[in-house]
Amino acid sequence: MTQQKQMILSLAMFGAAGLNFKSWTDPEVKLSSYPDINIDIEAAKLAEKGKFHFMFFGDFPGNKASDTSDMQTMGLDPMMIASIISNHTERIGMGITRATSWSNPYDVARQFKTLDALSKGRMAWNAVTGANGVSANAYGVNLAPSFDRYGKAYEFTEAVQALWATWGEDALKLNHSTKEFADYDQVKAISLKGKYVQSSGTLPIPPSKQGQPLIFHSGGSENSIAFAGKYADVFVGEVWTIEQGQAIRQALRDAAVANGRQPDDIKFIAGVMPLLGDNKKEAIERHAQFIDDDTFLQRVAHIGYVLGIDFTPADLEKPIDPKLLDQVVVTPYSDPRLENVLKVAREGWSLRELVYHSVIDYHPAAVGTAQDIADYMTEWFEAGAADGFWVMPDVYKVDLTRFVDEVVPILQEEGSFHKDYEGETLRENLGVAYQYGTRERE
Amino acid sequence: MTQQKQMILSLAMFGAAGLNFKSWTDPEVKLSSYPDINIDIEAAKLAEKGKFHFMFFGDFPGNKASDTSDMQTMGLDPMMIASIISNHTERIGMGITRATSWSNPYDVARQFKTLDALSKGRMAWNAVTGANGVSANAYGVNLAPSFDRYGKAYEFTEAVQALWATWGEDALKLNHSTKEFADYDQVKAISLKGKYVQSSGTLPIPPSKQGQPLIFHSGGSENSIAFAGKYADVFVGEVWTIEQGQAIRQALRDAAVANGRQPDDIKFIAGVMPLLGDNKKEAIERHAQFIDDDTFLQRVAHIGYVLGIDFTPADLEKPIDPKLLDQVVVTPYSDPRLENVLKVAREGWSLRELVYHSVIDYHPAAVGTAQDIADYMTEWFEAGAADGFWVMPDVYKVDLTRFVDEVVPILQEEGSFHKDYEGETLRENLGVAYQYGTRERE
Fold first, then answer.
1. Does the interface ipTM go beyond 0.90?
2. Which residues in chain B touch residue A114, judged by CB atoms under 8 angstroms apart?
3. Which of A133, A211, B192, B316 is paired with A123 by a 20 to 30 Å CA distance?
């Protein structure tokens, strides 16, 4: 009997109370101080109850918070949050973003390996380059057009992986009779001097239960696909349609092969915002309460822009005229969300309700009952548009709870999601091969 | 009734199982894997039970571990350990070392303020410059003689404190009726471009319960005293005699005044290794088991060197001839530990037992019963040689337990140590004034 291939689930950990700017206002959350680490701990435990493979932490240093970006651009360092969460969980992994453009490889190697060792092998480093000038300037780095982001990222990642292996795999002895702690002949310094990065010395930390952290990557450019082909075990993406997912997933599989790896060595993870209710209307009405007036008006305007229609306030409460929709031409240069705008608009929702469907947002929304959302994910998965999803519930305490209690069991019952963790480490749970040091070293 | 001035206690957190290279071999520890975060958590809880004011984390990145330096130079990042510990404790503070020579100010500002907010105001940054070339090279920094360590440290510390105040003290609103998260007009970017450090942007994290982390400093040079005079709330020192403690403590008090501050604004913390037993002989015999053969022979040789005596193996088991001791001349250039070597040798211990007293070590040892150790600390404290101590027990589980159960109650009974925490934050417990932003800003 062959094992059915199963999807990967990941929880996005960007906000204070959930993945919406206004999550904190939900009466179930009752946020009375910020930050509140207990909210993150509860979310992590919920995700672990739902057998999620990992939590995914973005990173937005230096950005000025604003009325429409509340939590997502708050400055908390995800390494601290992940450290605490790791101590309250036992199986779920953590993928944490740290950009190579403004970080130091020794620092990154050390903090990630420390946490990988303390968490007994559940860490991944999301090795993005970092293209945000505001973040770069906070770190005193000038991202001029000539700044070779990917050139630095390659050297940086090599250095980090080389540092991870400076402590020999079998160096730790803990021999109580001879009182030998370690065989220090197996601790070997590196000395790297590249064009962008240099580091010499050792990182004396024994291997974790999975050897060393996994490498994740995010992006979408040709450069990012090529980088992922060489280093990434997981690629966290941003796509709005099945076709886009299929294209980037195939590009990643080709890039893996081009680097002498197997196509399945890179897992492509697509984003999804589950809007869950007893029916679609209830689902979008729950979501609507987290859309503030400014955002609402911006999205109405953007829908008008992509459709080429000038809306007035009088248009809000009625469906868009199907004849106008039929005149819209989709081209390769259209907004990637246009097809979904058309599809949902043709279902007859009012313009207001169209906005509530989150057709214009950072990621596609799956709207409806638990079965609707499971069907959405299964369709993407079976079409080869994703190996899994990073899930963005509006409010952890409410919407993640419902997702875990209602959507996860359906996926498990249908055989497309695991019923329990395969092992103890993130590598075991994702089916990623053991690695210690750089790939060349293997 | 005036309140008697009381001493500060701090626990050194450098090792895996305690502050000795061989702590892990203690049968009570039974170390079977490394790292083991539970050992750190238990030590922190013990220290909190003993009402210690804070834990002190050193930092030794990049150094190659060796047979005689096992744990102390292991590469674990203290920020990760402190994050986890903070979540298992409620009152004890944490002072964590991060060197300005090889770190980035935005990174330091962000990680420390994140942890200060998550721990509800219990953090301090030990802002050392970092003079270790091996560590610097790991970070790709060349500490050439021309490297202006203190020049960078001043700019760095100003930048960190300025970043801490970019989120206005009253900006957080959490107004559930208006759904206003924050008044973003109170979030103000900085733009700093110095000779060594630059950073622009915001660090959008609300104040912790104590505003922002304290500043600690360590060292002993004139430069370090001057730096501490301007910035430090606590100075963690390395002195072997009361006279040395008095001298550096007075220098720090003078430096505070020179910067328009009060003499008591800088607390001087001296190191002490408590060797605790039912009597002195038992105390040194327990300590002896953690001294390996190489270290033992090195220390015999060093005692011979500072006394000007050539010892042979035949000398080990007998006291040093008092006539030889009388010929030793103490000069200002002598090893700072010489006076203590002479004092203990004159008590009639054998040369072997002299080594077991740890007369040659990184810090002075207090040897004997709980009352002996309390007396030692009280003598230093009353002589104005220290405002408190960083305590280095051989094994947390054994020797810290005894210290908390036996020494702490004596100090409390005698009125020289507090019976409970004064407040919730590290500032409240150390009596350090509230600060938000740079001092000039106040």
1. yes
2. 35, 75-77, 80-81
3. A133
